[in-house]
Design brief:
Number of helices of chain A: 7
CATH superfamily of the largest domain in chain A: sex pheromone staph- cam373 precursor domain
Shape of chain A: globular
Number of domains of chain A: 2
Distance between the termini of chain A: 51 Å
Strand content of chain A: 25-35%
CATH class of the largest domain in chain A: Alpha Beta
Largest sheet of chain A: 6 strands, mixed
Number of strands of chain A: 18
Oligomer: homodimer
């Protein structure tokens, strides 16, 4: 990591802030704006700023007075029938990147080198008119077992930069491949929706094939010739899932040949568990049930309490609880928020990022949050003047 | 304040929690659940718990295993054409109560002694069938200047309790009178809406009249015979206002004769200011404009930045900023949240409770908050698994 002292200083300034941990945390963060308008009139193209950063998070790039938005990101969003897939694919890809590109050394830039057209061609089926398609040719079959499904649903580029002289230089790139576990298709336009299920074995085989091809293509582009290329594979959840999918493995490549995969053992679990479902850790399930029972028995007018959780192996990494109320009064919301806090501290697992959102049918009324490091919940009631 | 040592201990336990300041704050709060199931089977009716409390906030009452909801509160909600009035009437009434009934000594209970029927009768016009109506008789006129308007739009009771033996005892009550500044009426059912404007002088005269009558009626009820009765007057904002109204004065009564009014100098201001509007403090207006300009110039795709603020005299007490974005990507939201934090610390007034909600068209994406005592913003990005 060839980091100059200047960079270290910049990073130190950026990281005065503490808190804002990856997901679900609500630390006290003092973020510092770092304006690096180091170039003069002559070199205006290289003028950049960063968004400021916070512990464990990347600073983002502001160039020529504008936040640099993704070149191809919209593609992902449009094509997903489950919005949780889109959100967790994007934020999860950053989490995988953190393993390789430390937020304390690198600045995050939304993908800039693969254009919308390129990514669209890659995501389409291979055909005479689209030789670059990474999805298989249409074999004409409409039978769910015999047809060639769409394996690759979305592809996202994320750039990791370092300061070089007066500008930023690309020092690494992460490519996310979102693989379908179910491919939804129609037999005729506007017709009923059918499904082709894709096995885990197929996801692995196809993602390896696609990763090899993507790596080869990227190495041909001058920007990507000599930088580390991380390729991470995401398994999409089905459209009827209440959570998004998870990243299942990644590979960190320095050369042209695909390096060995490293497995990622994530799992998303919804509480309360259904009848035929199990938790990686039955204590967590019991803890949630106790919390739910306590809160429901003491407060009338609750419509439901559910939690989305993320596991790594059998260790919970994050929990996001939603409580839907039929309250109206602000005093009731305040009292309920306080009560929920006491019960959450008593029953919910410690050492885990937890957030609890209390909402009425139309909007968020209040929310509570505790990071893995904290002992007590912070809370906020949305007030009105 | 006849507080026994036992009570002090209870209060001390309740107030282990710190933070959760009145509005807009997001302190770290450690709330303690205080279960006071002190009575046995014989006396089950008096079994109560509290919701737990936090610094500067009331603990609420849980009785017989249920949070005690308001007897008459629904009335307020139904009758307001401006939902901000309802919310700020209820939370503002608690703020006025804090002047008289300290949250460190009293436990808050939603109003239990005036029934829905009673309050409904009081809010209706006086008539042969409803001699208790506090609003004037219908004089038959449909002319906006000649008719008798509805002066009293809503009435709310809040009870302030202390522990007495094994149960809670009413030690004070606050009555909020929400007075119309505009009365909306129809000349025929389902017809167009007309307005009768009500002057500040009329609001004062009528609220004094109504307060005297309410005090007289409450003193006849055994529960209210010997407790302090605070009556607070709220001036409703018009239906087209983007904020709610404000409390304009209150009176703290120990006897049967209405005590002197004390004025409350609150004002709600929306930023950016309109052309013919002014701010109680022009520095605040400039500060907000600078913040808005900075944020808008650096991030594309923002739909709007507005702030609701509360003033006491010319001192800002709270600011609630809403930023509407057209972002989709979670990485963009993260970067933007970080950037907004640096700009808010740079430009927005210090020593004031500030919260900033970042939302897309459909939901809250992230939010930032800083209490008056804090120097830096806390932030939370709503993640998805």
């Amino acid at each position: 990591m060839n980091v100059t002292k200047k960079i270290s200083l910049l990073v130190a300034i950026l990281l005065v802030g503490i808190g804002l941990a990856a997901c679900g945390s609500l630390d006290n963060s003092s973020m510092s704006s770092s304006t690096n308008n180091v170039t003069g009139e002559k070199n205006k193209k290289n003028t950049y700023q960063t968004t400021g950063s916070a512990s464990g998070e990347y600073a983002g790039v502001i160039k020529n007075g504008r936040y640099v938005t993704s070149k191809s990101r919209g593609l992902t969003a449009d094509q997903n029938g489950n919005v949780n897939n889109t959100k967790s694919f994007e934020s999860g890809l950053q989490d995988v990147s953190k393993i390789v590109f430390s937020p304390s050394k690198y600045i995050f830039q939304e993908g800039q080198y693969l254009s919308t057209d390129t990514v669209q061609d890659w995501l389409d089926r291979k055909s005479k008119s689209n030789p670059d398609g990474l999805n298989p040719e249409d074999n004409g079959s409409k039978d769910s077992e015999k047809r060639n499904p769409i394996y690759l649903q979305a592809l996202e580029e994320q750039d990791y930069m370092e300061k070089s002289g007066t500008s930023l230089k690309l020092k690494g790139v992460t490519i996310g491949l979102a693989m379908n576990s179910v491919d939804y298709y129609q037999k005729e336009q506007y017709g009923a929706e059918y499904e082709t299920k894709i096995s885990d074995a197929d996801i692995k085989a196809k993602s390896t094939e696609i990763a090899k091809e993507v790596l080869k293509r990227l190495r041909k582009k001058s920007e990507f010739k000599n930088v580390p290329i991380v390729i991470a594979v995401y398994k999409q959840a089905s459209n009827d899932s209440l959570t998004g999918g998870t990243f299942i493995r990644y590979t960190n490549n320095s050369g042209e040949k695909l390096a060995a995969w490293k497995n990622l053992d994530y799992k998303n679990v919804i509480y309360p568990l259904g009848n035929d479902e199990s938790s990686p850790n039955s204590n967590d399930s019991t803890a949630f049930d106790n919390f739910k029972t306590q809160v429901e028995s003491f407060f009338p007018n609750l419509s439901g309490i559910t939690a989305k959780t993320r596991y790594k192996g059998d260790a919970m990494q994050g929990m996001s609880v939603t409580i839907t109320t039929q309250f109206y009064s602000e005093t009731e919301i305040k009292s309920f928020t306080q009560f929920a806090s006491t019960q959450a501290e008593k029953y919910l697992p410690s050492g885990v990022n937890i957030d609890i959102t209390i909402r009425s049918s139309d909007d968020v009324q209040s929310f509570l949050s505790r990071s893995a490091k904290e002992k007590s919940f912070s809370s906020h009631v949305f007030s009105s003047y």
